[in-house]
What does this fold into?
Amino acid sequence: MIFLSTTPLVTNPVLIFFIVLAIILLAPVILNRFKIPHIIGLIVAGIVVGPYGFHVLAYDMSFELFGKVGLLYLMFLAGIEIDMYHLKLNFKRGLVFGVLTFMLPMIIGTLASVYLLGMEWVTSLLLASMYASHTLISYPVVARFGISKNPAVLIAIVGTIIAVIGALLVLAAAVNVHNTGEFNVNDLLWLLGRLVIYCTVMMVVYPRVTRWFFKNFSDKVTQFVYIMALVFLASWFAQAIGLEAVLGAFFAGLVLNRFIPNASPLMSRIEFVGNAIFIPYFLIGVGMMINTRVIANVDTIVVALNMITVAIVAKWLAAWFAQKIYRMGGDERKVLFGLTTAHTAVALAVVTIGYNLHLMDETVLNGTVLMILVTCAIAPIVTSGAATRIKIKMLEEGESKADVSRRQLDTNTLIPVATPMAAQPLVELALLMRSVSGRQNIYALHVRNDNSSKSRALGRSSLEQAQKAAASVDATITPIERYDMSTPIGILNTIEERDITDVILGMHRKSLVIDSFFGPKIEHLLKTTNKMLIISRCYVPLNTITRIVVSVPPKAQYETGFRRWVVKVGNLAREIGCRVIFCCHPETRPLIRGVLHSERLEIRNEYRDVEQWDDFVLLANRILDDDLLVVVSARRTSVSFSADMDSIPGFVQRYFSHNNLIVLYPEQFGEEDKLTTFVDPLSTDMNLAPLSIWMRMSEWYRSVVTNRRNKKNIDL
It folds into this structure.
């Protein structure tokens, strides 16, 4: 790339950085008025202030460095924001699309270069690999609209992996043929071998090191720096073995995806830094490299038109074939096309290598720049229009299918915080359990029973820590400082005043030998409120949990709060990205599945049959240190209560004293305005569901008969 030799207007580093920040601030604001995607605004701004525009700024090492970092950051975000469960569901379709979006540009591009531009076969293959590759430059558009879990987006991401790897392999083969005069299969196989070794090392080493680091270092800034270090190490490692750095950054995002929940403070910091600085820097740098003056050359125009036509038509055909094969809609086809039509990083790498090896002349180089300009302009516009319609369709379908469940899942969560140390983990748990539908209100409560300055300071500090924990993920929490006779009475009064649906508490730590497992405060709450209580004790950060094991008592499906607690556990598993194992009675299994399906909680879920108390005892040998045990208990007056539950606290204290634990008491009584559904058999008041009374009586009769038969067999 040869820039103009004139001196830029601005050379002061401070003023340069100010101009860049002004572009990042104003370009999206101005162009959004004309309904032009902000990505185009940043690229156009780069053209205007760059060497081929008014030459306000020079494309120096700072833009090259920040641009490279921004590209890697963009690929890392694409990998880390993927829902791995949905990615696995769409992986096969993504492979097919990847083959299409790689092979069609390769075939069409090679034939067009040979027969229309008169190039040699090696040069044509090299040029076709540039058509086959693409950059997810319009991914921020789908992320902003919240459709990153849409199947079309996931298919496009898998296709990107296949296309980039294929383009790099063709590039390596073409360079090898040019240097040696023959095609060497061994070199290509050796590159594939290095790729397999690279992926294996990443999948084995990164998760183990990251889990250890997060357990020992809880500071969010330290964790952010650690994640960035791993990303750039993976990118450098990929370059060292002959791959592209963007592939390493994307794969690092996939591997680290598991440890960075979407609702975590760490995720907020990663997105903020990338979207505020690095990614805009990359987009401005792309604009600064585009030479609009090459349009005046006739030869360049002919070559550029050929390249633009091949690049766009081939990618559109791949999206069209994928749409027909998998019976997707027109908007999904446009998303596939919009995400895969932009060419930047790999295209520049290919054309630069070809130019340095004298396989391509300056006409192809300038045509590539013009192709980058056109494809980078088309991709965000097409993606933005289709993403808008898909989002509207998702909202309409969600409103029509989940009106009743949304009303049932309106949540007012109360978090009593006694000390500043206890505030952050409880708030994080509440945020991870939030549902994607329904009204969500979170309250932090500190109850004091004296007016001393020390007690007031403790309350203010505890509530401030709770607000900071919520603000770190852009969530709102309402602080409540209350003076009352005792902590349980203050919590009960707040429950009634704020219409609280669930309470999240920290587990009591025994200070005396005579103390009970839960402590007098929690036991008082269990006796005096019918709302759902979630009692938590976690020794490791939630994002390092490998499995969630849920112990469900028989007849749990007849409790009023059955649906609500299943949704809470499902949301937690979805945010953490781990699998959840429900140990439940066979009759409860289909109802749990029904709740997960109706709420679209597509998580990895497994089931183990538990019919007796002895089956729960066997869990003691199966819970690992990185697992989270959720014990669904019941109050004495509830349907699912049994005499065996009286021994749960002692058993848990004896065998699970060092494990991560949540004891959950579902809501016991319903509300008159709730409707019964097949996934919530007892969601109404007892007077509104007479069939449930008959089911209780029949269950009681069968249990009596079974006990008598067992007693006779024992006597025999």
The longest strand covers residues 440-448. The two ends are 94 Å apart (CA to CA). The CA atoms of residues 200 and 207 lie 12 Å apart.
